[in-house]
# Entry
Amino acid sequence: MLFTGHVSAQFDISKQLVEVRDSAFVQAYNNLKTKYLEYVETDSYKKMRALHKDFFRKLNHKGDPRLLEQTPIQWVKENLNQTSFFSLHEAETEWEQYILAQQDDFKVNEEIFLLISESIDKYGYYIYTDLMKELSEKYRHKLSP
# Structure
């Protein structure tokens, strides 16, 4: 009987710890969500996303654009006639403008990127992936210009 009471007490303590942890997770998640929604309203984010969207629209790439994120200029070199760019130079210039806007966005909004990193370190990567899933489902209009 004493053993059963000890196990029951341990279960109650464990349950309380899970509830406290879950409560902290929910609070961190909601804070991250609020901050991220504020972030996507910044001018630097909107500028960066608009440049990204325009560049990838001109690519006319029929496949998954994420496959080209690291090397789009190489793809343009090999497929210029399929794009809406007038020249390779135009594509390189627009890509450089996007990269500069991305760097500016990171500097201006460094706080959100630190919060994302800290949240992932504390709660695991799922806090971010779950947030991105929710935002893309509920707030798609805010995430893309």
